[in-house]
Amino acid sequence: MDPKKPFGHSFFGGTERRGYHHGRLKDALIEAARSLMAERGPAGFTLAEAAKLVGVTGAAPYRHFADRNALVAELARRGFELFASRLEAAWDAGRPDSMTAFRRMGPAYLAFAREEPGLYTAMFGNVATLSTEASGQAADRALDILRQAAIAVLRQFGAPESLSKDLAFQIWGTSHGVAMLALSGHLDAAKGCDPAVILDQTIGSIIEMTIRRGLNEKSVTR
């Protein structure tokens, strides 16, 4: 599967409008939502607009989705599944060592946000999109990949693994902040503010502080 086309065939490439294949209305609507969210943001479309972009009647989407929120939740689910696979590939089972592998995940995070703005918006635009069991589980899996990587890093330096959840959330929050600043144009490598460099330096500092904290706590309890 082409990683830039997580749903297979791309129904809306560039400014060219394409029809959908018979029997693939659901995928076509998801692709339309992805395109509209990339262009307009989290609240930037209605089911009727998605139907219009696909070229079907306003009633047609209800064959597959109860409402707009259900469509966005499915888009978020697919987004988190692709996101998790990108993080997992960057982690590469912790090779050649956990610290090196962990720091590859930052650029992978930024690349995903840059390459998939529609998916990224659906995933993080509103926590309500994770209210379905499927979308929530997909998001949990992505976070768990990050937490397992954090465990491996802490283990490598002899720090308590109990800090892994805090470390994972700190890295996630930092990565999201840098990604949003990059997407909005506030951080730009051409202007001397390379988001990849900033994120790598910040992640390194967070990991170092967490390891020191953990080692200090271990020494106190001995």
Q: How does this model look, in words?
A:
This protein is an all-alpha fold and 222 residues long. The protein folds into 2 domains: 12-63, Arc Repressor Mutant, subunit A (Orthogonal Bundle); 73-221, Tetracycline Repressor, domain 2 (Orthogonal Bundle), CATH 1.10.357.10. The protein has helices at 25-40, 47-54, 68-91, 98-115, 117-124, 133-156, 164-183, 195-221, and strands at 12-13, 16-17. Strand 1 and strand 2 form a beta hairpin. Helix 4 packs parallel to helix 7. The protein is elongated, with a radius of gyration of 20 Å. The relative contact order is 0.10. The model is unreliable at 1-18 (pLDDT under 50).
**Within the CATH hierarchy, at the fold level, what is the topology of the largest domain?**
Tetracycline Repressor, domain 2
* Tally of helical runs: 8
Unreliable residue stretches: 1-18
Percent helix among the residues? 55-70%
Classify the secondary structure makeup into a structural class. Answer: mainly alpha
The top-level CATH class of the largest domain is Mainly Alpha
N-C termini distance: 52 Å
| Mean pLDDT over all positions | 89
- Radius of gyration, CA atoms, in whole angstroms: 20 Å
What is shown here, in short?
The chain has 222 residues and is mainly α.
Layout of secondary structure:
Layout: E1 12-13, E2 16-17, H1 25-40, H2 47-54, H3 68-91, H4 98-115, H5 117-124, H6 133-156, H7 164-183, H8 195-221
Antiparallel strand pairs: 1-2
